Amino acid sequence: MLKGRYSIAVAALALLAACSSNDKKPVKASAPAKPTLMAPFRYHKAIEVSPGQTYDVVSWGRGSTDAGAFAILHSDSAKIKYTTTTGDLDGAITDVYNADMDNDGNPEILIQAKAKDTVNYARIYGFEFNNNSVNKLDFPKLTSSQRKGYRGGDNFYIKEGKLIREFPIYSSNDSLAKPGGAKRQLEYSLRNNNFAVKQISKDSTDTVTVTPKNSETSSTSEHKTSSSTKKKKSGSRKKHHRRRR
Asked: Could you tell me the sign of the dihedral formed by the alpha carbons of 130, 135, 140, 141, in that order?
């Protein structure tokens, strides 16, 4: 009798274990939450250019989201030295890039900000660091030809030691303009702490040609006129020949 009850209890426990194992659903790993910045800080990105050489870029400000300030905190953990570079910020930081565009061994930190300016939507704040000294790099504004059809939407990236900038081209610069599908690409190089820029793509503003609609009509009329002229000449020759007879 006891053996029978024991067997029933074991079977019941096995059945419960099987049901509980089937009811369990796989747990999805949640993505780690991004650390929130405490006010008045708005942006932070750490860039390690080499072991022990880290540049923390932060922005902050209270009372306005269109203006503020930025700071580049350089930590030299090998020499236990720390320096700070600050500046006024127009707009909000969207990304930070690191490069050695002039191949001199000194890193450049390029801060990209998005402004509400109707002429220059993107702003670049550039600095070159050489040990404890800092050189500010003046980023050139778009020329009138480069700015034609510009309405923002900039995309920056580093390629082969150059800073590439591309943006969609609009039919005009007013608020009702629509993108035409073409893009303009500009390449920025650095030499002696001075930027040089050149366009590396052909866009629609460079290739538009207008063909007159009445070109075929005018050529046809010219052909008819020349034919009638030939007929008149041949007729006059025949009349003149008859008179000689």
From this structure: positive
